[in-house]
Amino acid sequence: MSISNRMLQSIERGSWIRRMFEQGRRLKVQHGADKVFDFSLGNPDLDPPAEVLAVLAEEAARTGHMIHSYMPNAGLQEAREAVAAGYNRRLGLDLVPDDVVMTSGAAGAMNITLKALLEPGDEVIGFVPYFAEYTFYVDNHAGTFVPVPTDATFLPDLPALEAALTPRTKAVIVNSPNNPTGRLYPAALLEGLAAVLTRASARFGHPIYLISDEPYRALVYDGLPCPSPIAFYPDTLVASSHSKDFSLAGERIGHLVISPRCAARAQVRQGTIFANRILGFVNANALMQRVVARTAGLDLAVDPALYQRRRDRLSDALHAMGYRFQKPEGAFYLFPRSPLPDETRFCDLLLEELIIAVPGSGFGLPGFFRLSYAVEDAVIDSALPGFERAARRAGILA
Ligand SMILES: Cc1ncc(COP(=O)(O)O)c(C=O)c1O
């Protein structure tokens, strides 16, 4: 055996993604890619904002001595200034550039944070259903992922959180707007969460960090507010990116924001910057940092109304067929209850209709399935008859 048992186990745990991928590919080869309705990928398909593309073109054309050289591990000063300015304007904070570390996406920000924080065996809490990669990110840094339930509307269950906290709890991950549920966490919930963590930090004699994973922050519908935990809890670390707001997921540019009220602010900064270096990221993409330096402070984003229209198209039609779900308030996912108790069987029924969905067990919550509506209107429209036949076969539609 040439790779580690730990890695073999991770591959096995993540194998449902590969299976889906392979099933999808097989179907596309068999029936033609345009006949298969792939709702499985969280890959933003809107064009980036024109202003961002214009800056990117200018920056790519720039020449100069060492323009493509290594950068400071923390990132370009101008990029960190622009990110800090964006948060300060939006949330009325007082971040300085040193509170920002430029990263390779929100995923890079989560990994440098966990690398900096965790002792082996430390516990990191996440709420069910969760972005599956959290379990692997925590495992990357020798931590233990602890799943905690949400309520019937997918908001974190605070009494359950309180019961799950132990002296080994180092961090709690929250994600609003949420993947896979599309839920936004309201201010009252964040206040309650902050109170629970403040009490527990005092009881255990060390801070419990709140890691707020916010890559979907700009994708919010119906003008709803999307408060950030950083405004509620001092030991908050925000992981975010331009994967979704700028539709630049493949360019791998994001940031970590360390709350100015975080007690160990300087250490967390040093630790995460060093982690950027030794995890092999070295520095976030240099060209994209120059783009961020000129765009992050400007409130640019793809138009969420475009995703909102798709949400309405898909959710109105599915609701009329008898599917039941919490209507998404942000991000671009719908997380309906499976009409069959075993959601993998229902996903197989959908596959027979050439519709690819992700079973809820992949997010720690069997009995549901996830649809990404980062797909064109035509894909939604063409898939609806298949959803309807599957609803009939599953018995929710007469
Ligand atoms: C909840 C969540 N967190 C983090 C990420 C990673 O995003 P990024 O591309 O910024 O690394 C994703 C990507 O889909 C996500 O859905």
Give an account of the 3D structure.
The protein is α/β, with parallel strands linked by helices and 398 residues long. The protein folds into 2 domains: 5-48 and 302-394, Aspartate Aminotransferase, domain 1; 50-298, Aspartate Aminotransferase, domain 2 (3-Layer(aba) Sandwich). It is built from 13 helices and 12 strands. A 7-stranded mixed beta sheet has the order 2-8-7-6-5-3-4, with helices on both faces. Helix 6 (133-140) links the parallel strand 3 (123-127) and strand 4 (144-148). It is globular and about 60 Å long. 47% of the residues are buried. The model has no long low-confidence stretch (mean pLDDT 96). The structure holds pyridoxal-5'-phosphate (PLP).
Defining traits:
alpha/beta; globular; three-stranded antiparallel sheet; seven-stranded mixed sheet; binds pyridoxal-5'-phosphate; Aspartate Aminotransferase, domain 2; 2 domains; 398 residues
The CATH architecture of the largest domain is: 3-Layer(aba) Sandwich
Number of domains: 2
Please estimate the helix content: 40-55%
* N-to-C SSE string, H for helix and E for strand: HHEHHEHEHEHEHEEEHHHEHEEEH
- The helix tally amounts to 13
CATH secondary-structure class of the largest domain = Alpha Beta
Terminal CA distance reads: 53 Å
Which fold does the CATH topology of the largest domain refer to? Aspartate Aminotransferase, domain 2
Overall form: globular
Overall mean pLDDT = 96
Bound small molecules, by name, code or SMILES, are:
pyridoxal-5'-phosphate
